């Protein structure tokens, strides 16, 4: 029996190594990774840096006159909106999908003060370049914090706001101790294919892995296999600091734009949870409570909850996500 157990362990390890070995190393700007739609770039002079910001612009055959802008989360880039963008385009919406500075195919500046206001300004520059006066803005995870800041800064540019499992529904500083950017950087450098998969299994998918999740692991884990990874890790440290130090939850009350909250209630994502006292950790990232609390704070907002769904409704339960989204924006 003992030998069978050993064989099983060896086979499991070999399978794990085989899966990881199939992940391609990716450079800082993902030059060897093809996005689902054509990629365009806007040149930005920002904080004494000459930068390029990537975006996709999907124009429908039969336009309905509306534009949707999709804002990605911290552990992602614009590529994971592929299915959402295709369905929106089929319904007549023009779709804009930026890669935020420090993410995806956009520049990875090493001397840059990351702020949600700066990212919002960069994002507005794309709309200005394309002469788009108004858009429906959908933000997921960190993109939800950015979408909130964008809406507060430029309410006249936002037709409707959708927040999908946004982080920042609570102030992480009230739970977790501060870590310096240098400490965050050292932590980011320790990431690997295995640590990223374990994180996604735990926080996104309730320890149930499906093949359809693999592309979104490949994109972030592939960076760890390339010599460019320190650049990416440094930007990740800077954006973690931005999330921790720039809460938006106190300003939800100031949003006047029609708003929809899409919340997977199984989600327990919370920045800095590992640095919080053990007695506080279980109180962080309680999305089944945070969604309701936020809905009460945003005047006139709607809340749709998906029971037993994690951090990525548009990946985990796409059909449910799409029906709710389209019903709100059609």
UniProtKB/TrEMBL annotation:
InterPro entries (UniProt xref): AB_hydrolase_1, AB_hydrolase_fold, AB_hydrolase_sf, Epox_hydrolase-like
The keyword Hydrolase is assigned to this record: yes
Key word Hydrolase present: yes
Keywords, sorted A to Z: Hydrolase
AB hydrolase-1 domain boundaries: 67-208
One function term, GO molecular function aspect: hydrolase activity
Signal peptide: none
Gene3D superfamilies: alpha/beta hydrolase
UniProt-listed SUPFAM superfamilies: alpha/beta-Hydrolases
Protein name (Swiss-Prot/TrEMBL): Alpha/beta hydrolase
Organism name: Chryseobacterium oryctis
